[in-house]
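Thread amino acids onto this structure.
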């Protein structure tokens, strides 16, 4: 009976995989895919390429990638794509993880972890294990790229908050030396490294293609969750709109950020004794007790034995 149930689960899993494959293949190609398909018909100088086409392994690889791309779009609705775009903005839009690659990875992990869960559950607990672990592993695989990008974005936002005081100090030095705000930002972008100078570089690039400084700064505020950076961007925008000297605004924010960084360091230092309490209590004290009381206990046992 148990073997029959396992066979039924395997057949249903295979049918679900075939159904997802048919669904992904049946989806119409996107505009970009149609354009690339048309351009791929021509060689480098406009001549038609060899009619024999690419090799078999290349065609299989292209078909597999197209299957996962379409399946990824099928399991990633518009709202999920918007959320992924926002998470990628928080993570700095890494080059090796564009949105299309993340969507494809969701489909790959959905199928791969789903099949692994079914096989592992069937091997460990039979049919009930397969029915329980298969869908659970598939759902985990679907959301695993989202979790990884969220973790990457959280780490980058912490780095933004940590490097903000140094960047503000550099901006203050540049502005008080006679540079304009854009020139000071260019100096920071050229001479400093890290997430915050990278964001300033993106702001300058957006300004070069015709976007106003106000809109570029608002885009920077939308790409971060650091409240200090958002308040700084708001102050700079308001100073530009009201005609307030930017040097004073930068100086006040730089002083405030230095104070906050020192207070945060003091807070972390005060948490150290509390964090050391349990390791000392459970790791160090037992060893001390053994060293101090061990000889006395052995001598007492020897005396009682006599």
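Threaded sequence (306 positions):
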């Amino acid at each position: 009976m148990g073997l029959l149930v396992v066979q039924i689960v395997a057949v249903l899993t295979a049918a679900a995989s075939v159904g997802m494959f048919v669904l992904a293949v049946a989806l119409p190609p996107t505009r970009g895919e149609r354009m690339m398909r048309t351009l791929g018909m021509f060689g480098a100088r406009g001549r038609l390429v060899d009619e024999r086409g690419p090799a078999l392994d290349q065609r299989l690889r292209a078909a597999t990638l197209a299957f996962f791309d379409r399946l990824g779009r099928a399991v990633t609705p518009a709202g999920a794509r918007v959320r992924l775009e926002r998470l990628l903005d928080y993570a700095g839009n890494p080059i090796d993880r564009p949105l299309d690659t993340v969507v494809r990875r969701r489909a790959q992990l959905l199928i791969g972890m789903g099949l692994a869960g079914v096989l592992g559950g069937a091997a460990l607990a039979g049919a009930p294990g397969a029915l329980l672990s298969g869908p659970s592993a598939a759902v985990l695989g679907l959301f695993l790229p989202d979790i990884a990008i969220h973790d990457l974005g959280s780490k980058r936002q912490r780095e933004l908050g940590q490097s903000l005081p140094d960047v503000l100090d550099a901006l203050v030095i540049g502005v008080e030396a006679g540079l304009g705000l854009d020139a000071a930002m260019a100096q920071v972008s050229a001479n400093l490294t890290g997430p915050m100078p990278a964001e300033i570089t993106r702001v300058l690039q957006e300004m070069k293609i015709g976007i106003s400084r106000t809109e570029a700064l608002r885009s920077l505020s939308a790409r971060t969750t650091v409240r200090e950076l958002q308040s700084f961007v708001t102050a700079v925008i308001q100073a530009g709109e009201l005609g307030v000297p930017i040097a004073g605004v930068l100086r006040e924010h730089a002083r405030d950020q230095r104070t906050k960084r020192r207070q945060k360091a003091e807070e972390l230092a005060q948490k150290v004794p509390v964090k050391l309490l349990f390791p000392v209590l459970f790791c160090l004290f037992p060893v001390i007790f053994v060293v101090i009381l061990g000889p006395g206990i052995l001598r007492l046992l020897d005396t009682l034995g006599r």
